[in-house]
Amino acid sequence: MLRMTNKENDTALHEAVRYHHPEVVKLLIEEDPEFTYGANLSGGTPLYMAAERGFRDLVKIIIENTTLISPAHTGPMRRTALHAAVVCHDPKMVKEILKWKPDLTKEVDGNGWSPLHCAAYLGYGSIVRQLLDKSDRFVVYLRVKNDDNKTALHIAATRGNKITAKLLVSRYPDCCEQVDINGNNALHLFMMQRGFFKSLLKIPWMNVGALINEKNVEGQTPLHLLAHSQLRYRPGYIKNKKVDKMILNNQNLTAMDLILSAEDLFGHKAGIVRHLKWAKARAGPLLRQKTMSKDKDNNESKRNKGLDISFLKKASDSHLLVATLVATVSFGAGFTLPGGYNNSDGTPILRKKIAFQAFVAFDFLALFSSVTAILSHFYGALNHKKSQLASSLSLAYWFTQLGIGAMIVAFVSGVYTMDPHHSGVTFSIYIIFFCVLIFILFTVVRQIQR
What is the residue extent of each domain of the chain? Predict the structure, then answer.
């Protein structure tokens, strides 16, 4: 009966562990000490479940009361109870499990992570020390294939966990020579993660030229990465005589080349450049050649820019003339209304007709658009930058187009007001109007498409 399972494949011991009933757990194990209690459908064994939930007392009960047969200790994704205890950050639980089964330090989960990898990732220095005391040497060099072949030291460096990294390097100095799949050593990874590694360089095995100037697969040294990532500059590191300031990456660029050609992302660029110069770092041959070519191109660009601005100003003068004509015509038409005025009160005679009202509205729109275009030209004339001059000219162009269209509509409305019976002359004017309107619309659509 004790071994019976429910639909989730949980035994009574699984349930007792899940709800943290120490007396029930002890009683069940004492009644059937030879049963290993395997995993449920989720992959969890009672021992793993207890460790995962941080139930240190239950872990101790299960370990101490199953003396004949070792209890199952696995969990989901092939993790062990030791993985779970490390993640829970419980040094006492880790100590109990290591005392019971120290070989669990060699076990890796479905992603290739050992308990030491987990502790290095989380930065649990005390647990790292416990694991190192009970681990074989090769555990420190185990690589995570699904994570760029990183070792525990690489993972600590990636996370910026300097205490963990110091423990690993101090215990196994040659582990700092390992590189990941991208050719990065621990110093590369600390640099990329904005990690503070000044204290690491105090360790003799880390402060060697072979590591400090080692290139990854892209040819980047830690100094290149400092310049590329624009970290908080470290004068002590930059001034270190072992750091080669003139070493080239795969693009034939020095660290000075990278920082000089980059934008100031975090406000550290000036400081990095200043300290690189103090350390006698210089630009490489490729940047010097690019600088010479750029100076030549800039001189040519200035000449072309002058020609472009001259062309835009000539175009602006032509557009200004058109806008002025539209404004003049629209202004004059506002005081010479079709049909004339009443002699008695001076009001327009045809003011109640729809066509007359349309004439007044579109005449006002033509005047407003043309005056706006003229003001845009004036504003553009005050700017000497090509981009601002082009923007002003573009705005004036569209308002001039709008003014011309509104003026044509006002003219046709006025003709219709004076000749509501559509004589032959009026009909001809309508045809011309529609042709001109279609031409204007066609021109506007083509400009938008461009």
Answer: 308-449
Give the tokens for residue 406. Answer: 């509104």
Distance CA 373, CA 385 (A): 19
Query: In DSSP terms, which residues pair with 80 in a beta bridge?
Result: 74
Phi first, then psi, for residue 99 (nearest 5°) are -65, -35
Burial letters for 358-379: b for 16+ Cβ neighbours within 10 Å, e otherwise? bbbebbebbbbbbbbbbebbee
Q: pLDDT per residue over 1-42, tens digit each?
A: 667 878 998 999 999 999 999 999 999 988 887 787 889 999
Rounded to whole angstroms, how far apart are CA atoms 429 and 436? 11
440 close to 405: Cβ distance less than 8 angstroms: yes
3-state secondary structure of 348: strand
Q: Please give the Cα distance from 349 to 368 (Å, whole number).
A: 25
| Encoded tokens for 450 | 């461009």
Distance CA 122, CA 191 (A): 18
Looking at residue 248, its pLDDT comes to 93
Tell me the C-alpha distance between 383 and 324, whole Å.
Answer: 21
Radius of gyration of the CA atoms of the chain, in A: 41
One DSSP character per residue, 269-335 reads HHHHHHHHHHTT----HHHHHHHHHHHHHHHHHHHHHHHHHHHHHHHHHHHHHHHHHHHHHHHHHTT
- Assign 144 to helix, strand or coil: strand
Residues 326 and 370: beta-carbon distance below 8 Å: yes
Contact status, residue 392 vs residue 380, Cβ threshold 8 Å: yes
Q: What is the pLDDT of residue 71?
A: 85
- Cα separation of 358 and 363, whole Å? 8
Write the CB contacts of 193 (distance below 8 Å, at least 6 apart in sequence): 157, 158, 159, 160
Evaluate whether 195 touches 160 at the Cβ level (below 8 Å).
yes
Cβ–Cβ under 8 Å, residues 47 and 73: yes
Rounded to whole angstroms, the Cα distance separating 370 from 364 reads 10
Phi, psi of 144 (to 5 degrees): -95, 105
Asked if residue 104 lies in contact with residue 80, where contact means CB atoms within 8 angstroms, the answer is yes
Question: CA of 399: how far to CAs of 218, 323, 404, in Å?
Answer: 54, 9, 9
Q: Mapping DSSP to helix (H, G, I), strand (E, B) and coil, where does residue 341 land?
A: strand
- What pLDDT, in 10s, does the model give residues 154-172? 999 999 888 899 899 989 9
Mean pLDDT confidence for 423-449: 64
CATH number of 308-449: 1.20.140
- What tokens were used for 37? 């209690």
- Which distant-in-sequence residues (6+ apart) come within 8 Å of 370 by Cβ? 323, 324, 326, 327, 330, 399, 400, 403
